[in-house]
């Protein structure tokens, strides 16, 4: 079992078995059927009317007779609830008696390895006995042939004969539920093509032998002879998801039970060598729960101190941004989008990177994509910026913004150029001033680069750029994308030891189209060196296939791949599988998402693959308050905003009040029913 690499066996230590002053050990847990380590309620154990432990009424079902076992067994079976026409979802052969059995129970598995030669001698004498009796009964003849076949296989296949026994101890505090439990266990065994035996007389002995460390007292007449290969098929190998001990991560739900688990998809995989970077690629069609998962992930990272820059085109993060008090940049006619790339916040300085980003911005405003700039123009802009900031240092009354920079060029820098006899062909300052005139006060875009608020973006932990209204604007969009990249790269380089995240929603398509593809490539390749992670979210499969940026730069540099419900693409999933480098097991996991969700709970499932080595499906199940903060349904957003208005625009109080009203309304409906 250990040679498989998936299982590690550890011999139980005495301190695990014994109870301590403030902790109950395995022996006590088993005897009192208690899951909690801090439970100190002692119970009586009775066998008068079946097995009873305190108020728990127990039933013991055994697989201890070869006649009750299935004709065939294997290491796996198909789990139909998660299987599709194209994929078979594999689970362990005995999974029906493990986590899939939805009642309180213990599944005990015994394999006794005795002296093989001694076992063979016993079987040989039994065969001879049956041989002599075979003339009197056809049953003896069949038993003789079976013993003969068993012994032949031991010799020819070099099998190890063992004795095995398996049992399920199930219990409930309600006597009426015992019939339901019996049906559940019988059904689970029927899935394995086995028959259940309800133990009554032998139950105390088997229960006693099940105490951890007391297996030697097991009644051997309740075992059957088999080989190790067949015996291990009945071992339960699946367990619940374990919470990560890492301080970083997100809270998700166990797929089967819904129990909350802490999952680290950033630091722990890198530390364990599963991933080489923290970048993430999220793929999920509309309505698959993509916005909910990304909102939940962003909120979790924000609460752990991460600086997040988010680029969106669908107002999916407005509620979250309002809730945590982040900066929300968007464009509308009454309140257009505003920035101030010339402002240097307190504690910051005019370094080479800041100057380069401003020069890149000025050149983008001045020249078209197909126009080139010469060396002398670049040098002139460098000199202009240097002299402008020297003027600002000398005169503190001048506010740094595009207006004051434009006035400096027009009034002072023009004179400097004439004194230095700079020719028009080297730097045409009049052309520069004319082209940039719309961004100066009184111009069409005078608001864009002259912001007087939301200036300290370096220290702001959540910044959302909503580009929906300007994604097709030929002037505004290129400027805004340059500023976004400058903001994040500034955070990336200046915030030492602080986690940074840039999340680009569907806006990546527009950004790539505007010649910003190199920025995205640069980010995905270098962000890991600065304790950062880049995340790209996309809806359509065609986007992946058609975009060389996504195909090469993003996918190849994203070790964490997150997929939501792909059922609509299951007939062409082979393309996605090949592009993302998913294994057949991962394909089966992805296509099983949302196949058998609990109808009584409202949640969506999400598939997470870490480095192609560790893949799991989790629930994204949020509270009603979180749902109201993240929802993208227009009617719910309008209603929530109305609630917030009642509390003077306080979104938190609005959400709390709306959630309370919704819960009370639901309770009222249930009473009416």
Automatic annotation (TrEMBL):
A Pfam family annotated for this UniProt entry: P-loop_TraG
InterPro entries: Conjugation_ATPase_TraG, F-pilin_assembly_TraC, P-loop_NTPase, P-loop_TraG
Domain TraG P-loop: 249-661
Protein name (record): Bacteroides conjugation system ATPase, TraG family
